[in-house]
Amino acid sequence: MAGALPLDPVTFEVLKNSFITSVDQMGEQVLRTCYSFVIYNRDFSSALHDANGECAAQGNQDIAVHVGTLHFTCKDVMRHFEGDMHEGDVFAINDPYAGGTHFSDVRLIRPIFADGKIIAFSQSNGHWSDVGGSVPGSFDVAAREMFREGLRITPVRLFDKNGLRKDVAHLIASNTRDPASIIGDIQAQAEATAVCEREILRLVGKYGRDTVETGLAAVQDYVERSARQRIAALPDGEWETVDFIDRDPAGGEGMIPIRIKMTIKGDRAIYDFTGSHPTIGSIYNSAFGATFSAVAAGMKTFFPDLPLNSGFYRCFEIIAPEGSIVDAKWPIAVTGFLMPFEKIMNSIYEMWSKLMPERALACAFNLEYLLTGGLDARSSDKPIFMFYDWLPGGWGGRNGKDGSNVTTACFGTGLMSQPVEGQERANPILTTECEILKDSPGPGKWRGGAGVVKTSRMLQAEKTVISYICDRERAIVWGIEGGLPSMPHGLTLKRAGSTAEERLGSIFSDVPIGEGDTFSRPTAGGGGFGDPLERDPNLVIEDIKDDYVSVERAAKDYGVVVHTIDAELCNYEVDKVATEALRAKIRSERVANVRLDPELVAQRYRSGAIDALDAIRKHAVILDWGTGALLPESTRQFREVFERRSVATWKAG
């Protein structure tokens, strides 16, 4: 870390912001020229690196999941082609075992030369909707090894001195289900790296090569210096927490723990994952690069004003046991890395909320991916279609403010919610419902944000299968400081001509689906912050008016008794006397309810006496939400953290 600023303040600020702008311009280029609908909805990111491969600038809307990995893949390309890079070359890589995320995130990297010398690299990363593998969309939850996940691209020269190597490009594209879009995205991403190159060379022309190189180092030193000063001002200490993946599909019942101990020591943070579960028999494993990115993104949330570059990465250290779910090695399957990724981010939110209570926030909903692919029978030539969808949901309640409603996941807030009109033009799928989901917010003094529910129907299609990649069906989105959880994720399927719905849950692949079949899935709200019995009844009334909370759950979760005067006119009234009595009753009984015999709770659920929200919020019991069978080990684990996050801060009745 440099001790003094090597540039005058004006030049430093100009270069700092110019570097970020050059990356933003890469994003605009991709957005306007990409072929994939997925990339168009901002599942991409970009970066500018110095000559050593260190990240010097990220864009303002680059998604969190990518940003902490791009310097790793840049360095891997540099190692493979050391001494063999030329002006106009562009290299491709998507290798998660070399610091990437998963095979769908394909990075194109261009060395930037000035006066015959490499001074920087530009990188464009886009999520391709399919990279081959055993199922459409390349998310096979049953995969234990990478060989069913799709094409692994180790560093390869894709453009040679500005000329596309068509043989390599077509080899890559031909191993996917949508080769035409892949070729288009290759061109779009390559041109994006050229946009950044032109901007950096413009700066070289204005300020000189040495000044630009100095600036690339100085912006990293600035971020490191600023972050270290802020960390040093915090108290030294240790904080620990645990979050869970729902299950190991290849193992027995019980959630999969990810344990983190954070140590603040001087001007540095250390994150120790010792005790986290070994890799599991599905794609829900994370290689080290994705784990590193999760830590960077989670911690960066508490330093929102600082630019993000490798200077920030110098301020923390990660201890990740090899072979664990947070440090998977080749050839362990890792396409579903985003499930441990978001558990890590939310765990870091929880620990930093203790350090910076003014920025505290509860758990956010979990990103989910729906992938449906087959032959589009609306056209006579029946082309392959790929419907790749994700939904927004609720973020956790905050200290003094409700959580954000219907927001893209912490995985990447730069993502856009896909417009259903565009989806319907590209795919034989009709959206019949997409709306805010009542009672999805986790109750709290400050409630979580609301999630959504989306229902779709298959139109004319053949040989179609559906896959769903999600979590938090059992490790329910949790509250803190006495707040309550949200609700379970999971998809239901209703076959054409049937009156019954089939619950498929939150993790499955390659399920056949036909014309007229309807599928529906919710996203959870955020967890609650603070005791819901302390929420202002007038705020509960407003939530009822906004359809965030039902009158019934206002009583159950908040102890607020509401009389409906005229629902059409949103006219409701709080019964203050009844509310005081109900809150006193709930306060006196709720600890015993959380510790009630779980099997008795399961029986009540199966009989219809209680619903899933009662089982979760009142009794902290986890069931198979389709059959009502008790999941005893998952319940034990869920109750353990529920006691710590919620019960421990409740006032006695």
Helix content: 25-40%
Instruction: Characterize the largest beta sheet: strand count, sense, and whether it forms a barrel.
Output: 7 strands, antiparallel
Q: Mean pLDDT across all residues, rounded?
A: 95
How is the largest sheet built, in terms of strand order? 2-1-5-4-3-6-7
**C-alpha termini separation:** 54 Å
Task: Based on the model shown, name its key terms.
653 residues; alpha+beta; 7-stranded antiparallel β-sheet; 17 helices; 33% helix
Q: Can you put this structure into words, describing what you see?
A:
- This is Hydantoinase B/oxoprolinase family protein.
- The chain has 17 helices and 22 strands.
- The protein has a seven-stranded antiparallel beta sheet with strand order 2-1-5-4-3-6-7, sandwiched between helices. Strands 14-15-20-17-18 form a five-stranded antiparallel beta sheet, covered by helices on one side.
- A hairpin with a 7-residue loop joins strand 12 (369-376) and strand 13 (384-390).
- The chain has helices at residues 9-33, 37-40, 64-67, 70-80, 166-173, 179-207, 209-232, 288-300, 310-313, 338-355, 420-426, 537-545, 551-558, 576-594, 598-607, 612-618, 632-645, and strands at 44-50, 55-58, 90-93, 105-114, 117-127, 156-160, 163-164, 237-245, 256-265, 268-272, 316-319, 369-376, 384-390, 429-436, 452-458, 461-469, 491-494, 502-505, 507-513, 518-522, 562-566, 571-574.
- The protein is globular and about 80 Å long.
- Among the domains are: 9-226, no CATH class; 360-530, no CATH class; 596-652, no CATH class.
- The chain is of the alpha+beta class.
